[in-house]
Amino acid sequence: MSNKISIRFYKDSQVRAVWGEEQNKWFFSIVDIVGAITNSLRPRVYWGTVKNRQRLRYNELYSKCIQLKLVAADGKYYATDCFAQEDIVEVVKTLPAKNITAFLDWFTYSDNSIDGQSRKKAYLFWESNMIAPNEIGTVKALQKIHAYLFGGLYDFAGEIRTKTIWKDGTLFCRTEYLRHNLEQIEQMPQGTFDEIVDKYVEMNIAHPFMEGNGRSTRIWLDLIFKHSLELCVDWSKIDKKAYLLAMHESTTDAGHIKDLLRQSMTDKIDDREIFMKGIDYSYYYEQVE
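Above: the chain's sequence. Below: its structure in token form.
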């Protein structure tokens, strides 16, 4: 069984994928895709009915379906019908459902967008070992992470911004104070859970880059947790809306984000699947609805 798992999000619906080691490619759960497109409460039954009705008509295409084990909501692995990424477009076109065009626009564009390309780089960060132990929690480490994720995509990858920025009505640290604030944040202690989250919150308020702050800083946070506490965040346990609200509140009160993170900590710091899911959720948090 492959331990390379990916979770994409189409309008808040999970679309799971698993890496086929023998085939050297991603395979996507067609049941998840059916559920995302149709909003069916029983997507597995819906897909089974469609498959049986259309098998003869699209025999050559449907014969490419393989079963791979994917983890379900109950934490157990079940054999699931999957298609390779290059076949998904053709399979989806055979479904008797509306909104197919909107889904295909998302599916075919997502991997070629800046977010899609950056996410591919983020997956590889696991093997990079680019942050030395003595750099963890430093501004330099955060710059390295940002440069790794967005190098070749943004011309400012890894560079501290020189313009003042706003987002959703929030004013982040003014540029004239940014360098000094970053020096102070770097010196903040990171030995306990509360200290680490306080440091994370302050770095978010600083928002040192023009774009890509959240995705970079969440990786930075996990590195600190692993180094100091031998723990990391299972981001798949944190709801998107709850996270965004907690981070918005954290500018005046970090209690909510501390509660969310504390309830989602795990000691599986060497589990690649936890890391991969974390990347998927991190990028999902940034998707504009």
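Strands lie at 5-10, 13-20, 25-29, 66-71, 77-84, 166-167, 170-171, 232-233, 265-266.
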